[in-house]
């Protein structure tokens, strides 16, 4: 079955990454947007739809469009955390299929490292959060630690198996000159790093960085006119199962089971056909749970699946090939960077970290505390 070609990603770019003192969120978004449009061979005057998400005081889409000088015909400010941008891709496909616009710009930016915003006390807890924050649960890491501990109890998963993910991802980062952390690490290094929330060590946790990213999506009519080979959106799916961790239906099963199923069905491809996989890695346990829920292995088999550096360069399951949120960058909502890397892999633009002959990629975003999931399958002609 060949998926209908409705929309393609035609441009991608990051802004400056790491720590960007003196730059605002809007400046980082504008920097990434300009570069992504140049990558596509387009200008802001070609853009007639704006998609963005972020933790801003005012409406992100309106502020961004005003800043960029764009008056869109279509706007989407959906914010479901780190998976927002994979969800935006699906929403853009629906809009393009309906003929509502021709070129969509998706952006994100954050200065959380420069602002030290991760260290600020949380706002007053609302609804079910009143049963978590006042009692000392650190958010979000404490929620992920609960899931990790449950998986270990239920299936015998070990800290060494989680560490395999961090080590393999760092090996990819060592091949990426833009990655923030490029020094090699071992499983022992991960296990010796300090506890953040047991059973998660420091090296089980994502970075805290500044940065922005942008993706340009075009209709089937416009895509062939872009400067570079289009990367087609073949399938997508999304869901959210809860808001707070106390309401997660099963601490070992994420919504990726549903969003992944829909994406695979729409794309008409199988797991074995994929060449590269980009999975949200806020924490090592996020990756392991996602692999199981997406069906790459059975429940409880995630630890064995990633063992032996299977996901590292040279392994038979290339995953998080830019170094991921664990070692490349993580400006709070990482999902847009998964899309950027997948597109570059399918275009063959990744230099020493290039997966040979990559034609099909899966991108999966996770948001909140394992709350939202969105899955996208991409392919090139």
UniProtKB/TrEMBL annotation:
This is Acetyl-CoA acetyltransferase. Residues 237-380 form the Thiolase C-terminal domain. It comes from Alicyclobacillus macrosporangiidus. It comes from the Bacteria. Keywords: Transferase. The keyword Ribonucleoprotein does not apply. One of its GO terms (molecular function) is acyltransferase activity, transferring groups other than amino-acyl groups. NCBIfam families: PRK06158.1. Transmembrane segments: none annotated. InterPro entries: Thiolase, Thiolase-like, Thiolase_C_2.
